[in-house]
Every structure is written in C-alpha cells, then in structure tokens.
Structure to design on (546 residues):
C-alpha cells in the first residue's frame, strides 16, 4: 500500500490488518503523535480504525492539513459537549456558527445553569484532557442508529449510508462530521471565552498549531450571524432535516422565494444607505472572500441604486494588477496574487482622485492570458449623479484607500454565512458553502476540475485570513449572500464530480468528506431558482449577465 504523510510517501506491505495509530507509529515514529486522523482509500477514519491489507492508499493528516484541522475543531467540540453534558445533563449546548477562529456556542435553556457555568465546563474539559481518555468510535448499522430516540440523529434518516461511526461521549452516543482525534490529551490548548448570551470555543488550527488564535471581537459580523439565525427561525429552517422535510413534501419553492426576497430587501436597504449619503459618497468598495457572490450582488445593487436615481459605473481591482513580469516570485517560485503589493495603488489612487475631480480617465484592464495590463481605448468620467462601485478582495483595506477622502467612500463586506446546521452541534462551515460554489463555478465556467479547485483551496483560505477577514469590521454595511437551500441544489451537480476524483489524489479525503455532507441533503432542481439569484452566478442561467 502507498502511505503518505505531508510531503512524505512510502510503499509498505502489511500482511495482516493493522490499527491506524500503530501503523503511523511504525512508519513515522518521530512525528506520529502529531498525526490526528487518517484516510483509507480516501475515506476519513479514526486512527483507532483497522486498515485491511487490501487497501491501496493510506493518508495521515496533522493539523496543517484541512482534514486534520477540521478533526481538531470537531474534537474540541466533542470534548466540550462531554464536559457540559456530564455537568448539566438537562441543558443542551448549541454550536451556532464560527466566530473569532472558533465556534460560538450557547445553552438553549439557562434555568438549570449556575452563573459560572462556563468556568465549570472549562474546568471539566481540563480534567477530561488530563485523564487522557481514548476517543474510540463504534461503527453501527444505520438501521440501529435510526432507532436511537435522540433528535441529534434525526438527519441520518435521509442518509444513504449503510453504517455510521458513533462516539460515546460521557456515556451518550454522538455522531460527528469528522473522525475524532485519538485521545483527549491531543487537545493541548483550548479556551472558552464568555460572549453575548453564550461563549466562544477556541482551539488550535493550521495557523496556530501549538497555541490559540487571539480572541478578536467582530460585532458587525456577529450581528449578521444573529440576523441570519432569526431568518432561520422565521422560516422554520434551522437544521438540514427541516429543509429535507420541505423538499420531501414538495413545498420548498415558497422557502426559496422567501430567502430571495430577504436578499432583495437587504440589498435595497444597502442602496438606501448609500443614497442617503449620496452628496458625499463617490466610491462604493465591495469586498469579501472567494465565491461570496460579489458580481451578482453588485449588479443587483446597481439596479437598486438606479431605482433611487443614482447612476452606477463599475471597476475591478483585478485590473490594477502589476504586470507579472515585474513581480519577483517567492522562494518556492510562486507569486502570491492576493498580496496587496500586487495592486498598483499609485495608479488606482490617481485614477480615483481624477474621477472625483470630474476629469476624464483612461482605465486599465488586466489581461490574465498575457499577464499584462492593457489600457482602455475609451475615457471614463463620473458625473455628479454617478457612483463608482469597485470590487476586489482588498476593498476594505485602509492602505488601499488612504489617499481618498474617507467621506467619499462607502464600504460593503459580503460573505456566505449560512445559519443552517446538520444538528445542534454539527455545523455547516461557511467556508464549505463557498467551496461548493467555487468548485461548480470553476468546473462550469473556468475549465478547472473540482480536484484542482480542492488543491488550491487551502491557499485561497490562507489569503482570505491574511487580506480579507482582518478588515471586515471596517465595512459600513455587511451582506450575507448565503441561501440555506443551496447545498440541496449542489448535491446532484457535484456528487458525480467529487466521486470521480481518484483515490490516489491528495485531496480525495476532502472530496469524500464533502460528498458525505452533500448526501445528507435531498436534491432540489434548479427550475424554481430565480434568474437573478446569487446562486445563478455559480450554477448558470443568470439573467443579469446577458
């Protein structure tokens, strides 16, 4: 069998079945304690699982890999739940959404909790970690799982799986979206930070492997998450099985229309806010992470502004890229296109200041095929009735706009912040939602395979953490582009593509992980999705691009 760990790979022959953790210690003795989970022929597994000798490929993952980092996050959640449920068995802790590189959690009822419940849970977690408890999974047939009278397993009634891994957390069966780390002692750092009506659980990740990320408040972002939670309560779709029930009854179309109407209402509110400041605002900067739906959002915002009597012109920060032959690659021979230094800020500042003074300007256009900037053959100018919408990942970075009058700028942050979760403690990652969008868009419109998109995704995420997320609170307004029904739309479109990735691929484990998530959704056809929907940017059929 081929055995891989990071950049290391070896051919190894096993005559008998062997436990994953034993094989890791045998093949990688100096680093096996850093290995968190494995994938057997692409299927993510606990290190306690047995590896048959007939297996072709075994991948081991540490915290620097997406599967390993995800396993650490899920395992920290499991240990927190064990602590909470053993101390307060009458209370359910809900894992709501990501926040400050951790998870915002809150009790669904507080009458059985003491004022210092967070401190008590944290202390119990420390005890569990010191006890070095083995987190061993049981593989149960799906029909046996479906007999367990616990709501946390309800979503699995739609699952096509034959078996389900279960962990007995403090004597109570749980299932998780990732295999867990081998023992509680692998979680060497954690923090429970009291926040709002709950707390934030923080844990190590690929950027902070041996420590914890700093706790950074983002009140504007938190407010958007809370707004999304209320949206889910309004539509009575908080968990995946709620959506599946609508699909099963064939009454999901009304939910689609409601979600789309909420989007349109929010875009109109943003347009009204810009119009209110119209006498001073000349530039609207729109920024957000990959596959947030920025292009469609700008087109719909432009329509709403025109309704308000505001004329709109658009440019992209991508057109201000420096010519590639003028950029020195890094030590690995690669160019970080997401670095702020890749933008010709002097030219951008000159153009924008000239436009606001009423001058005619020749704008650039970056030719991605030649890697060089080309100048337009036409002049562009702004009239008193115009605003210029500028899209790009650096739009909220103050370094980009330091030469502009602050009162002339309106900044918008957009991201897909889904509030839909699988159950009360298995959350849908917002980055996974954007990954689905990007995989399908790249496949349909950019001639990239889903495998190549998966391979590039960690680099994209690294760029977002460095160049986008630190500045999101600089926004005047935020827009959540998530549509809680979109995973059901992506299901049948992406499953065949993900399943086609060979088991030898280094991203097969991620493909299998996403595939298993998608299989928990019943499919929705695309016919009832409005042609102006942000989702059309990724699945095709938009009326805004004709």
């Amino acid at each position: 069998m081929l055995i891989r760990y990071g950049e290391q790979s070896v051919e190894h022959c096993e005559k008998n079945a062997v436990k994953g953790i034993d094989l890791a210690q045998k093949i990688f003795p100096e680093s096996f304690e850093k290995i968190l989970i494995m994938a057997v022929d692409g299927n993510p597994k606990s290190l306690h699982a047995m590896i048959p000798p007939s297996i072709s490929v075994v991948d081991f993952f540490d915290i620097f890999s997406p599967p390993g980092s995800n396993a650490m996050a899920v395992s920290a959640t499991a240990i927190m739940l064990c602590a909470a449920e053993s101390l307060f068995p009458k209370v359910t802790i809900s894992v709501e959404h990501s926040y400050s590189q951790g998870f915002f959690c809150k009790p669904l009822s507080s009458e059985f909790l003491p004022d210092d419940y967070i401190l008590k849970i944290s202390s119990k977690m420390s005890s569990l970690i010191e006890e070095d408890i083995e987190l061993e999974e049981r593989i149960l047939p799906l029909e046996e799982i479906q007999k367990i009278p616990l709501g946390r397993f309800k979503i699995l009634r739609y699952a096509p799986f034959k078996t389900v891994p279960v962990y007995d957390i403090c004597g109570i069966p749980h299932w998780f979206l990732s295999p867990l780390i081998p023992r509680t002692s692998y979680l060497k750092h954690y923090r429970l930070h009291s926040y709002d009506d709950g707390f934030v659980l923080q844990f190590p990740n690929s950027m902070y492997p041996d420590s914890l990320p700093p706790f950074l408040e983002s009140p504007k972002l938190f407010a958007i998450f809370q707004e999304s939670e209320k949206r889910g309560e309004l539509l009575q779709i908080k968990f995946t099985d709620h959506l599946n029930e609508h699909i099963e009854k064939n009454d999901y179309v009304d939910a689609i229309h409601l979600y789309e109407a909420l989007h349109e209402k929010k875009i109109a509110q943003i347009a009204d806010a810009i119009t209110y400041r119209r006498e001073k605002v000349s530039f609207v900067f729109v920024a957000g992470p990959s596959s947030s739906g920025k292009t469609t959002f700008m087109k719909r915002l432009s329509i709403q502004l025109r309704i308000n009597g505001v004329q709109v012109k658009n440019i992209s920060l991508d057109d201000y890229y420096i010519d590639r032959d003028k950029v020195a690659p890094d030590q690995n021979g690669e160019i970080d296109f997401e670095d702020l230094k890749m933008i010709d800020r002097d030219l951008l500042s000159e153009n924008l200041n000239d436009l606001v003074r009423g001058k005619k300007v020749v704008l650039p256009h970056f030719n991605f095929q030649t890697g060089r900037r080309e100048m337009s053959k036409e002049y562009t100018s702004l009239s008193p009735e115009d605003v210029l919408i500028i899209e790009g990942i650096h739009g909220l970075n103050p370094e980009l706009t330091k030469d502009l009058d602050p009162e002339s700028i309106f900044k918008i942050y957009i991201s897909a912040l889904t509030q839909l979760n699988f159950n009360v403690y298995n959350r849908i990652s917002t980055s996974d939602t954007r990954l689905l969008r990007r995989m399908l868009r790249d496949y349909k419109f950019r001639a990239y395979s889903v495998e190549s998109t998966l391979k590039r995704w960690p680099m994209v995420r690294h760029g977002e953490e460095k160049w986008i997320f630190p500045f999101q609170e600089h926004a005047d307004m935020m827009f959540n582009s998530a549509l809680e029904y979109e995973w059901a739309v992506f299901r049948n479109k992406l499953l065949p593509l993900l399943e086609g990735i060979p088991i030898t691929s280094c991203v097969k484990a991620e493909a299998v992980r996403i595939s298993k998530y998608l299989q928990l959704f019943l499919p929705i056809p695309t016919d009832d999705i409005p042609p102006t929907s942000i989702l059309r940017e990724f699945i095709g059929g938009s009326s805004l691009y004709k």
